[in-house]
Amino acid sequence: xxxxxxxxxxxxxxxxxxxxxxxxxxxxxxxxxxxxxxxxxxxxxxxxxxxxxxxxxxxxxxxxxxxxxxxxxxxxxxxxxxxxxxxxxxxxxxxxxxxxxxxxxxxxxxxxxxxxxxxxxxxxxxxxxxxxxxxxxxxxxxxxxxxxxxxxxxxxxxxxxxxxxxxxxxxxxxxxxxxxxxxxxxxxxxxxxxxxxxxxxxxxxxxxxxxxxxxxxxxxxxxxxxxxxxxxxxxxxxxxxxxxxxxxxxxxxxxxxxxxxxxxxxxxxxxxxxxxxxxxxxxxxxxxxxxxxxxxxxxxxxxxxxxxxxxxxxxxxxxxxxxxxxxxxxxxxxxxxxxxxxxxxxxxxxxxxxxxxxxxxxxxxxxxxxxxxxxxxxxxxxxxxxxxxxxxxxxxxxxxx
Length: 401
Ligand code: NAI
Description:
Blueprint: E1 6-9, H1 15-23, E2 27-30, H2 37-43, E3 49-52, H3 60-65, E4 71-74, H4 84-89, E5 94-95, H5 102-117, H6 120-129, E6 146-150, H7 154-165, E7 169-173, E8 185-186, H8 190-196, E9 199-202, H9 216-221, E10 226-230, H10 239-247, E11 251-256, E12 280-282, H11 291-311, E13 332-339, H12 344-354, E14 358-367, E15 370-378, H13 382-390, E16 395-400
Parallel strand pairs: 1-2, 1-3, 3-4, 4-5, 6-7, 6-9, 7-8, 9-10, 10-11, 11-12
Antiparallel strand pairs: 13-15, 13-16, 14-15
The structure holds 1,4-dihydronicotinamide adenine dinucleotide (NAI).
1,4-dihydronicotinamide adenine dinucleotide binds at residues 77, 99, 101-102, 105, 150-156, 173-176, 203-207, 209-210, 231-233, 257-258, 285, 287-288.
């Protein structure tokens, strides 16, 4: 009898991940802290799978001590903490959950639109200090106003639906042609969005093209009295120009969740030239930080582990060729990771044929240095076949699933 795969989850990953994996018979161990490089190197030889969040650093030294790992999961959005290239050449797919917090970000933006339109941040701070500022001046409803969404991807399009439900008119700009949801209207360019919108909300990734995409030229065309919201990436807005636009009353306020420089931990002090300005909401990069998002991340990465360990599917991996063969019926399945060089497929299939096995289904995909192949076969001695394919000179790892 083969022992169940042992899975180590560190950094207090949401318990739903453990319960989901245990349902399939995996042996799951939890740690609440983020282990150091040394601790990981000592621990990992006992495990087949590792799950981390954003603090644990997976260096090439850690991967060296864990070459036998089947896969890894970053139970978060980013994967900068993992040496992805090294994991790839060792044949270890790394999974994450990039869209588990989409709804959380969209809801925060909806709240921010109302807070900005009613100057809630300033009224709240005033009331806490004993100031009673009962006035309708400058306070508005969001109903009937125009929301301009820049970047109509997962978050932008989700926000589009929520905003329309509140009675806003939605326009958007994306560099890729996108299907407008509901009554949203695509605009030809960013400038049109800036000219027409009462609220501008940014939902683009951090790229060379989006660096300072809202700067002096954009504040020169933005609708006077508009509100700017940035819950995407800190580099997208030129903060000095934003401060000028606020001080010169070009815009009536802003809500900023992400900053060019952010404290590395809750223990560090946060500083920004936006602090102390009127109708400016500042939040510590919490757009996606909700209990629901943590739950969703736990479910999504656990499901990726399951599908990879039980069926060989790599969809959702950030450093690996994607293969997603439907679950096998009667056939037996094995996976093989190999160096991406000409002729490997021929060698594998020659070995299958030499064992008298018949290929029922096969899917190959390659990325950079490696190729990944999932094969369903009937007949032959599968256990010996897997051993022989594993011995081929360019095989990195081969496993029966
Ligand atoms: P996504 O990849 O689904 O959508 C991004 C969209 O932006 C795509 O449709 C893309 O075509 C478009 N785009 C790219 N460059 C553009 C440009 N120059 N002009 C116009 N459109 C452009 O990404 P998703 O999941 O919607 O995330 C959007 C942003 O939100 C990302 O920067 C992400 O890092 C950030 N984010 C922030 C969180 C927070 O806690 N504040 C949490 C989650 C995501």
